[in-house]
Amino acid sequence: MRVRPCWHTSRLFGYLALIGKIGCGFGCTCILELLWESFSRNK
């Protein structure tokens, strides 16, 4: 599994990522990105 920066998100979820960083720190943003990536892959 490759490591990616927490802030590397698609433009569509850029705003959600920003809220995640402010609301609960970088951890939530990383989790959201991982979930979105796995979801897109399973499509």
TrEMBL record:
Keywords: Membrane, Transmembrane, Transmembrane helix
KW Transmembrane (keyword) present: yes
Superkingdom assignment: Bacteria
Membrane-spanning ranges: 12-36
Name of the molecule in the record: Uncharacterized protein
Protein species of origin: Porphyromonas crevioricanis JCM 15906
